């Protein structure tokens, strides 16, 4: 069973531009929770007695694991109680944990609170996608998701710089005060500006049978399942870079305080790609754009891997190869997610939770493996990118029965 949404839809009390901005801020909760603290990882480790550089990456991994697991619950909850109540509950939990971390006495305690903070943040990831699916369908959904991703990508541009600025005037604890205040600001916008997008008569009962049935609908839809798996592996490459970005850009290339600027440049490129996708997707379609970008991603990653194994990459060549790969990522993400969600509008919350759980857990674990493989060179990262690109391509072939670039595909 599928549902069809009109290509255009409106929220009577919220113009499209404001809707996109609010959805982007909700998704930005997760980006800012990771990227703003990258400049502070070294100080966090030193303050809490963590000597191993790779172990500091667990500050990110713990958050991703909490967010990934909790998404399985927020989806069905939002299908039963509507979008706003579970969303506000998640934002509240997130803010409380952020403030609690300020007073944490140990690295273990910090990791535990980061896990629980990720649990709260899961609501923003799941429900923002569900709300977009409630309001838009088809290529229009892909366009809106691209615009959301474009604004969302601005956060990695500025977040490390904000973190670096905070570190100039305060210790790492202040970073968590800032993200607590941001969560409270977004929650106030949800309360006063976002209408409920799931009507009472479209809600599903919150029972084990209903939840299992919703999961079955998602997991037995070939297009939704395999596009989700493809995106999960490709996200693994991105998480691998985030985990090891500070070690590569500062440790290998010696950028020092210029690290946030370089990180911002890469994120800006993905924002440009997302904007490009939003302009092109209604003309060329999700499949043509994303399939071509996936092939480009494989080629770029393969060349990068070969170059990294043959020679010690100079910084300019690293920038060129990584940038080309990540531009393709910007054309892939919104389209793959839209294609995974498109046939599942009647269980949007549950579908978003399963998709988000899979992408976050698989992507987080793969990213952690890539990050932990860091050996003082960019070889593990480049190799990881190529591997996840090839695996993602295989999953797309399965989803499309071996035929790429088709403008339409049955949803079963």
Automatic annotation (TrEMBL):
PANTHER family: MAJOR FACILITATOR SUPERFAMILY, POLYAMINE TRANSPORTER 2-RELATED. Coiled coil: none annotated. Keywords: Cell inner membrane, Cell membrane, Membrane, Transmembrane, Transmembrane helix, Transport. Belongs to the major facilitator superfamily. Bcr/CmlA family. Residues 19-401 form the Major facilitator superfamily (MFS) profile domain. This is Bcr/CflA family efflux transporter. It is a multi-pass membrane protein. SUPFAM superfamilies: MFS general substrate transporter. Signal peptide: none annotated. The keyword Membrane applies. Its main location: membrane. It is found in: Cell inner membrane; Cell membrane. The chain crosses the membrane at residues 20-38, 58-75, 87-105, 111-132, 144-166, 172-194, 224-242, 248-277, 289-307, 313-336, 348-371, 377-399.
